[in-house]
What we know:
Distance between the termini: 51 Å
Structural class: alpha+beta
CATH topology: Alpha-Beta Plaits
Radius of gyration: 14 Å
CATH class: Alpha Beta
Largest sheet: 3 strands, antiparallel
Number of helices: 3
Helix content: 40-55%
CATH superfamily: Hypothetical protein rpa1041
Number of domains: 1
Amino acid sequence: MEKNPEPRPVVVFSGSQMEVAIIQTLLEDNEIEFFLQDEFIGTMAPWYAEGGGAGSVKIVVADSDVEKAQVVIEEYYKNIRQ
Length: 82
């Protein structure tokens, strides 16, 4: 009998609390499960949470959802550039 491997967590986005809140909503709308990493440092010390830098909030998904999450994030960036 073959076991299903445990899903591996993968960081798909790293940024400010505001950006994470927007992308979080988009992932929820697309039924992609995720969790936030380092979210409290972004709340307690937002000046320290530079987009993508040290102290930024990270969105983590299962390795099986990475491609779907990346499509959602790319669409978000495409829409804000228009």
